[in-house]
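hiii, so i know i said id send this last week but things got crazy w the move. better late than never?? heres the sequnce for the chain we talked about at the cafe, plus the structure i predicted for it. fair warning i was half asleep when i ran it
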Amino acid sequence: MNTATPYAGRVVAPAVSQESPAASDKPDEHPPRWHVLVRVLIAAAAGVLLYLSGPPRTLWWFAPIAFAVLAWLIHGRRARAGFGYALCFGLGYLVPLLAWTGEYVGVVAWLPLALAEALLVGLVGAAIAVVGVLPVWPLWAALLWVAGEALRAIFPFGGFPWGNVAFTQPEGVYLPLATVAGVPLIGFAVTLTGFGLAALAQRLVSRELGVRQLLAPVLATLLPIAAAFGSLPLVGTDANDGEATVAVVQGNVPRAGLDFNAQRRAVLDNHVARTEKLADDVAAGRLDQPDLVIWPENSSDIDPYRNPDAWAGIVRAAQAVKAPIAVGSVLVGDDGLPRNTMLLWNPAKGPVNQYTKRQLQPFGETMPWRPFFRLFTSTVDRAGQFVPGTEATLFDMANARVGLATCYEVAFDGVVRESVKGSNLLAVPTNNATFGYTEMTYQQLAMDRVRAVEHGRTVAVAATSGVSAFVMPDGSVTQQTGLFVDAALVQRVPLRSTTTLSDRLGPSPEWVMTIAGLGAFAFAITVRRRRRSSKA
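okay and structure toks below
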């Protein structure tokens, strides 16, 4: 007698996935083609739903729903089906999310990058299908998602974690989890909720309504949210290391797009002029005297060591505002290659320290596989050949010890973790002008908000053309500019030297979750092989 319950175009034995790893998990071998097409479209739509959950929208709850749909499609199927549906899910998410990468070198960067990332999502989908034979499968599936994000943080092109699920959640209930174990824990919580919802829906459809059958899905759905609320008391905002009046200057650019790079002198002049206007506002009593000033990345693409006019302009701005300035500059080394560098400019002494960006942006500051991509388009040569820095540097600015994460670096857990060590304020100088009016700047601001909670720091975001902002240690935004306007934001902000639990744990939670997920995957393979052998 067959006790399996049919749904969604396939037959699944419910006891397999949740409670009994001894039962059969063989899916429908030959579903009608139109069934497959419908599932493909649903998978892609679920990916779009995940994309819509992120900034500049505030629809954070779309994210667990998207994962619930993905799990519904994958659970009970073979690995190849899991790969295919997750690949479509990844494309639905990453193609619109990464559209900004095409603003610089065209679709030759955007679409291959999105496809490469989606293929890695597909591998996770295959693994999730495999662990569906284990009890409490939503747990193992969520752990495997974390493992997949860990892989994407190091491969390809030196890692590209821009699409991490946590970065869709600056407005969500999951945000406080960042202070406990950072970005990986938020990703785990969101996906566990979604997979739990799928398991719960499966139980309800199959009319398995006993406590034993419903307990695990209900816990998987609700525990992550309860844990997030329980983490709220750990999110500190007190000024335990004093306060500082900080100014961020957004000088704007002559026009959006790649032509920004041809207007380097105009960009520098804009930031000098806007800082001098800030000084006038301070002298007139309209704004408070800043203790320190943050300029954006690329605010002086002209090397001031090689150009006396650039040097003189920065000196004039620093002396006018009577405060040290962190200046984003491009310095040319003895090898003739550029370095993306922040200079600490003292009004009386000139440059006294510097930090060179360590994590360079592929398809912008560097061009992976340049000879290969040049076969398709010469626009790849518009990407740079920058040389990365080697170590984190703190800027001592008045009573603030400023850690620096330049633009793209804010997406990388380890880079930011090293940057905040010993700091009491985090600055994120960024240049988004190259990417025009795309959503890139809002996606990055979401990362800044997650990092503020993760490390318990005020974050000062200085952008060439927007969005510049102040983010408090609880992730709230107190001031922000628009796009392609000149502006100066001034605010008294808390300085915090507290080490969060996430700081103390470092990368270990991600490694533990990754190892647990991979261990479950290996065990599931063994279980499936034993079943096939018993049927032979």
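btw Residues 178-205 form the longest helix (28 residues). thought thatd interest u
miss u guys!!
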